[in-house]
Amino acid sequence: MSDEKKTVGKYSQDSRIDTLLSNIIGELRQFTEEQAQNLTEMTAIGRALSAQRDSAVIFEMILKQARRFTNADGGTLYLIHDNQKELIFNVLHNDTLNSYMGGTSGNPVTLPNVPLIDDDGNPNHSNVSAYVATTGEIVNIPDVYEAEGFNFEGAKKFDAALNYRSMSMLVVPMRDHENEIIGVLQLINAKERLSKETIPFLPETVDMTAALASQAAVVITQQRLIRELKILFESFIKAIATAIDQKSKYTGGHIERVAELTMSIANKINNTNDGLFADVQFSDDELDELRIAAWMHDTGKITTPEHVVDKSNKLETVFDRVELVKTRWQAIRLSRKLEAERAKIKLLEAKCSADELKAIEEECNKDISVMDEDIDFLMVTNKGGEFLGDDKVERINNLAEKQYSENGDKHNYLSENEVYNLSIRKGTLTNEERNKMNDHATMTIKILDTLPWPKKLQNVPAIAGAHHEKLDGTGYPNGLKEEDIGLGARIMAVADIFEALSASDRPYKKPMPLSQAIKILGFMVKDHHIDGDVVDLFVQSGLCFEYADKFLKKDQIDMDLNLEKEE
Description:
Largest sheet: 8 strands, antiparallel
Structural class: alpha+beta
Strand content: 5-15%
CATH architecture of the largest domain: Orthogonal Bundle
Distance between the termini: 118 Å
Radius of gyration: 41 Å
Shape: elongated
């Protein structure tokens, strides 16, 4: 062989080696880039999943990403039912069949659940998804028509009906942070990226899918725990509110009604596109904060004595002391009659005239009649239904100065404490009792401030404790001015006042007609106590009528929305 031929052969061999090396390096670079891209996307998916709150979106993301990793034609995401006996179809995709159900598709999955237990009570291993859910093993099948150990008759009938060919299948368990299986990811028909031919699922894609499934399971479990804790938390709050309401036999349901009305007003504001509230929008977190504050607004009543909460009459403490007054009056009446009888006996002994006996009888009857009028007056006064004027207070004081004898001792008709309570100008509470009642707002703030509220609920104590504040600064417990009272607390104040005005279960007042309750709200707006814009929205939007239809007695609803608008 000549030197020239040797040189050409050497160059040709070197060229082939360079080309081979170049191809190897190119493939290695592509593989490295793909792995780096996959790792980057796995990290991005983790962030996206963790940030997402909507379960439907999370399930959709999981299946889409698993299909993208494996280039699968279709797939299904199952979740294990709470009863631990079934797999639920949650999301289902198939590009070839243009079929998308569950997730964010808007099309509900209509397929029946997959049983995890067979008819004999044993784990269902004939169905591949149930097998993976019960064993935790990954199943990678190149061709389901040639697979052994599983029943694919259903898949074959499905294929025949829709002219489809199920071939390769990858089924992966979804394990949470405690290694518990919460669901199954099933992928069908991996596609070669260039030719689009159906191929088996590659080993490297199996590992990526398993990693994604585990990552997704942790996020799903986290979301589920958050949701369950939120449900537990709100249920606990409602349980406390129910206990507080039940503390008084007269105000059961007050907190629930206030919470419902508060949220109805807030939601109405969110749906308003014109007027003063057009640019106001409560976020989901702010609505949660307001709802919880409404349910907790009377928490401080835990510390309020029951006899104060339930005080329906002025003389009531543990029991209504008006019964003692009535008994005392009966004793005084009896004593007066006995006194008259003794006087008549003396006159008879002195051989008096009939006119003298009649005079004693008439005087006694006159005194008894006055006493009957007095006790009737006290009975009415004790109820506290109307404002007590100066003339009535003077009458009570005059009655208190009267005296009767008992065992030779003189006693006033009314004790000092009875006079003090009966002289209450409005309602049934003394100043001390009203201060104790009002103190529930302070205690609400104090109690709620001790709880470790998360950041998005940090305003709950302030909102809950401000429902008795007034825009002019004369409210309690902190005398806040208008600029310091947030919209949530203003809404709750209107809801709380309207509920109290219109409630039909208060023993110290008759059920108030709807028109009168709305009129009083108007007076309070004029006095700059409550927010007029909130009241206008409440009335003009028809919310007050919706509330009345649901909670008021029929005879209280003395107006309707159409009449109100005409006026």
